[in-house]
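Q: I'm building a small set of examples for a reading group on sequence design. Run inverse folding on the following structure and report the sequence directly after it, with nothing in between.
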């Protein structure tokens, strides 16, 4: 049974940093591109970042480019999202998922077999 467990969220002041982790199990993570998504209060879930199977290629939404860094450790079935210079508009629940293919964040879609984990709450507020 595929499972994704996000962690590392919290409350941080504007300008602060957080590192999210996503532990994957129940499927061969190294066979899939992986994506981070987020859902802000009252808004639809949106793509934030995507990383290729071996980690050599990444894409980001314009709103986080230069501030967020996605990475992966296939040996430990974990994907990370390092976030710096956080802004209040980064507030939301962050989810990871295997994606159908490596692509832009606007086009990336979760793989057919994937289901959302519980997510990691990120709150940026003074």
């Amino acid at each position: 049974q595929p499972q994704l467990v996000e962690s590392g969220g919290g409350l941080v002041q504007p300008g602060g940093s957080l590192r999210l982790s996503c532990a994957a199990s129940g499927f061969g993570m190294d066979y899939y591109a992986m994506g981070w998504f987020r859902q802000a209060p009252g808004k639809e879930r949106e793509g934030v970042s995507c990383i290729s199977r071996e980690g050599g290629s990444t894409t980001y939404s314009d709103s986080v480019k230069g501030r967020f860094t996605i990475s992966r450790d296939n040996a430990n079935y974990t994907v990370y999202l390092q976030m710096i210079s956080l802004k209040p508009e980064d507030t939301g629940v962050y989810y990871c998922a295997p994606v159908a293919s490596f692509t832009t964040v606007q086009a990336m879609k979760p793989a057919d077999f994937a289901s959302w984990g519980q997510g990691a709450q990120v709150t940026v507020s003074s």
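DSSP finds no helices and ten strands in the chain.
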